[in-house]
Design a protein that fits this description.
The chain contains nine helices and no strands. The protein is an all-alpha fold. It has three domains: 9-67 and 76-234 and 287-338, no CATH class; 343-539; 543-592, no CATH class. It starts with 8 loop residues before the first helix and ends with a helix. Keywords: Coiled coil. Residues 198-302, 350-434, 463-544 form a coiled coil.
Length: 593
């Protein structure tokens, strides 16, 4: 985007006022005082701003009437005074113009704010890009590491970077909002300024017209009164001296009138020239304004596009952050599983190998695409070179045809000349100047032959030059072919190496898959054995529980017998054991006893 041209507020206001004044006064008849009016107005504005720093602000008198201090024939006559309403009008105009200056200064400060916001935005985007690049290092470290503490540290670092990115994105969004708000303010201020300036200039022009009317009416009254005095003085007796003095006065007045007329003509010419210049300036200013509007629209479009891009980037970053968190959780789970069993390691290795294979395949596809692009580019270069060579051949053929046509034309001209010579010989056979005419014709023929030889030489040189250009272009085409051939060979070698790497990676993957399948089979067998052992133990535990319950029942019955008889016999115990189905325990008890 092009830089906005900064101007002082005085220049902008002057240009706008001149623009509005010249637009209104193009079709109207320009009075004699208009040039002086604009000139004095510019001087007053410049003096106002020069004296502004010293604290002595002068009121801007935009309209100064150039009334006749002396009339045409009266010595002293004061110019017409302004009424109280016109003076109040001028004071109000001064206040409005001061407000316009303040608005221009605020508009300029808004442009500077926009520049600062855009610079801050660029800095924040650069910081975000750098932080995104920093995320890649801990990711690679997490992929290569297996320790839980290191992964937790790297996860905390990634979370900090993500928070920093979110803050930077929020800052850029807020800066974009402020930029849009400032642009809206600038558009509103510019519209208000245009309306105020147009209204002020219209009122100033009307006031100037009214003052000019008053001035010219006073001049007409003075001339009418003077004519009446002259008509009254004719009847009087006038001496010769008075008559001579009046004649001298009239002559001086005529000279003054002629001088004023000439000056008015020159002023009108100058004004016409200046109006043309002002029109050109107005056209240039309108073009600049259109460019500025176009820049503002482009700026708004860029801001909208950047907002959409930032929103998409923020969404992508959030998705990546969530993805990274999921990956971290998955990695933690995989590490826990790896501590318990070794099967998790094999799964990780398989995943890593698959990723490497996919990456190598993508690189191979990219290199194949590059090779195809290079081949297409080489073919296009060959086609362009062939087309250029064909064009050069066509030009050579065209020149040869033109040479043939020119030679035919020259031959026809020579034949015509011969015919003319024969006719002249017949006509001048009986004249005395026969020898002179023959000599002139021979010289003309020689001159024509020389011109034909020179043109043949030029055509020969042009043909040689074209052939040299064709040879140079063919050499360039051969060089390009050789270069593209070397590039293709290098790409083919790289593709071969990548294919070998892919084959090696595929073999490693196949071996790992076989080992993992074996480990799975062994693990399945071990799990079946463990399940069978667990079932056996459960059955044994159930049997022991049943026996213990029966023993407790026997013990309760023996307690009842003891309470009833006061003693316990072994036969009672055996009978109870047989009833409960505890024959094995009876045998063990007999052995112990």
């Amino acid at each position: 985007m092009d830089k906005i041209r900064e101007k002082s507020p005085t220049e902008i206001i002057l240009e706008r006022k001149l623009l509005t004044a010249s637009k209104e006064s193009i079709d109207e008849e320009i009075p004699n005082t208009k040039y002086n009016f604009f000139k004095e107005k510019a001087k007053e504005i410049i003096d106002f701003h020069l004296n502004e720093d010293n604290g002595s602000r002068k009121t801007l008198n935009y309209i100064e009437t150039q009334g006749l201090k002396r009339s045409m024939f009266k010595e002293e006559e004061e110019p017409p005074k302004l009424s109280s309403s016109s003076q109040r009008h001028l004071k109000n105009k001064n206040i409005q113009i001061n407000e316009l200056f303040q608005n221009e200064i605020s508009g300029q400060s808004d442009f500077l704010k926009i520049k600062d916001l855009m610079t801050k935005q660029n800095i924040s985007l650069e910081n975000a890009i750098e932080s995104i690049k920093k995320i890649k290092k801990p990711l690679t470290a997490i992929r290569s590491s297996n320790s839980k503490d290191y992964t937790n540290d790297q996860a905390s670092e990634i979370e900090e970077i993500a928070l920093y990115l979110s803050k930077e994105i929020e800052k850029t969004a807020s800066s974009f909002r402020e930029v849009l708000r400032l642009i809206e303010q600038l558009s509103k201020i510019s519209a208000l300024e245009k309306a105020d300036i147009k209204r002020a200039m219209k009122e100033d022009m009307e006031a100037a017209k009214n003052k000019a009317k008053i001035k010219y009416e006073n001049q007409l009254k003075a001339i009418i009164e003077h004519n009446k005095e002259l008509s009254s003085n004719k009847r009087r007796s006038i001496s010769e001296d008075d008559h001579n003095e009046k004649i001298a006065q009239l002559q001086s007045s005529l000279k003054k009138l002629t001088e004023s007329y000439n000056e008015s003509i020159e002023n009108s010419k100058r004004k016409n020239i200046e109006t043309n210049k002002l029109q050109n300036k107005i056209i240039s200013l309108n073009e600049e304004i259109e460019h500025l509007h176009a820049d503002i629209e482009n700026f708004q479009a860029i801001i909208k596009s950047q907002q959409s891009v930032d929103s998409s980037q923020s969404a992508n970053l959030r998705a990546e952050i969530n993805y990274m968190r999921d990956m971290l959780n998955k990695s933690k789970k995989e590490l826990e599983i790896s501590r318990k069993t070794d099967t998790g390691k094999l799964a990780k290795l398989e995943v890593m190998k698959e990723r490497e294979i996919e990456r190598l395949k993508s690189e191979a596809k990219i290199l194949e695409n590059q090779l195809q692009d290079a081949l297409n580019h080489m073919r296009k270069g060959d086609e362009l070179a062939r087309a250029e060579i064909q064009d050069l051949h066509r030009e050579v053929r065209r020149l040869e045809e033109e040479n043939k046509l020119n030679s035919q034309r020259y031959k026809e001209d020579i034949e015509n000349l011969h015919r003319e010579l024969q006719e002249k010989d017949k006509q001048l056979h009986f004249e005395r100047e026969k020898l002179i005419t023959e000599i002139d014709i021979k010289e003309e023929l020689k001159r024509i032959h020389l011109e034909l030889e020179e043109k043949d030489k030029q055509l020969y040189l042009d043909r040689e030059r074209l052939m040299e250009e064709i040879d140079a272009k063919e050499e360039l085409r051969h060089k390009q072919k050789n270069e593209w051939g070397e590039i293709c060979d290098n790409l083919i070698l790289e593709i071969k190496t990548l294919k070998e790497q892919l084959n090696g990676a595929c073999e490693d993957n196949r071996k790992l898959i076989e080992e993992s399948a074996r480990d799975r089979q062994n693990r399945i067998q071990d799990e079946t054995k463990i399940k069978s052992q667990k079932e056996k133990l459960r059955d044994k535990l159930r049997e022991q529980d049943m026996e213990l319950r029966k023993f407790w029942e026997v013990v309760k019955e023996l307690q009842q017998i003891n309470t009833a008889k006061g003693k316990i016999d072994f036969n009672d115990i055996r009978s109870l054991m047989n009833v409960k189905g505890l024959a094995r325990q009876i045998k063990r008890a007999q052995k112990t006893f």
